[in-house]
Amino acid sequence: MNWIDAHVHLQGAQLHPETLQEGDRLGITRFVCSTVVGMGYSPTFDQVRESNDHLSAVIERHPDRVSGYCYVNPRHGGKALDDFRRRIEDQRMIGLKLWVATLCDDPLVFPFIEQAIAYRAPILIHAWRKTVGQLPYESTAAHVANLAERYPEARIIMAHLSGQVESSVQLIEPYPNVYTDTSGTPIGGGEVAIAVRRLGAKRVLFGSDLYGICLASNVGKVLGAGLNDDELDLVMGGNMQALLDGVVASHDKTI
Ligand SMILES: [Zn+2]
């Protein structure tokens, strides 16, 4: 068993102290992390840089267990792009994380997407469609589909099935470069089953959105989705491992 959690956040500067042991118990060998928590919706460049420093240090301590997406606030332009390059080329990070500082299909984001394409690096995009209280720059599956249409080479992971499985699957289904992850409290075994049936098991990744939620129940909703063994292997780790294996960077990879 070589399962990978494709969507994890640090708790402050650290991985939650119990995460690695929980992973040992549940068969999860790698956690692919980003920062974002606690910085506000549009953090300053210094806040983002410091948080990426924390993630880089965690990766250094646990290179066999932890990988990282570099978080960027696209409003910071060229200096954020330089930081992204440095994290990938010199610090073992493997991907890009976008949250709610801009919509994901804003032209401000395009240089980051183009750089991620050059690295063949996965791009984890927060997406969530709410009935009320949508944040002003919170992407939905429609924005993800728009970005995927513009950049068919980008390896995009739409987080949380964007919170609504039926509407999101409908929108991203035409774009084979868009994957999705299983994290999010509205996503249960039934939603995972729908996603696998409609998108195919190769486009669905196990993710928990740790910390602050239960890793075991997030594993449980995939185990409870009625997948066959091959599908389960792909969702629980095979797909993310293939994405990690595809990353082209100049550092000596240990992922
Ligand atoms: Zn998240």
From TrEMBL:
Source domain of life: Bacteria
Coiled-coil ranges (or none): none
Stretches assigned to the Amidohydrolase-related domain: 4-243
Key words, A-Z: Lyase
Organism of provenance: Paenibacillus hodogayensis
Record-linked InterPro entries: ACMSD (IPR032465), Amidohydro-rel (IPR006680), Metal_Hydrolase (IPR032466)
Name by which UniProt lists this protein: Amidohydrolase family protein
TM helices/strands, residue ranges: none
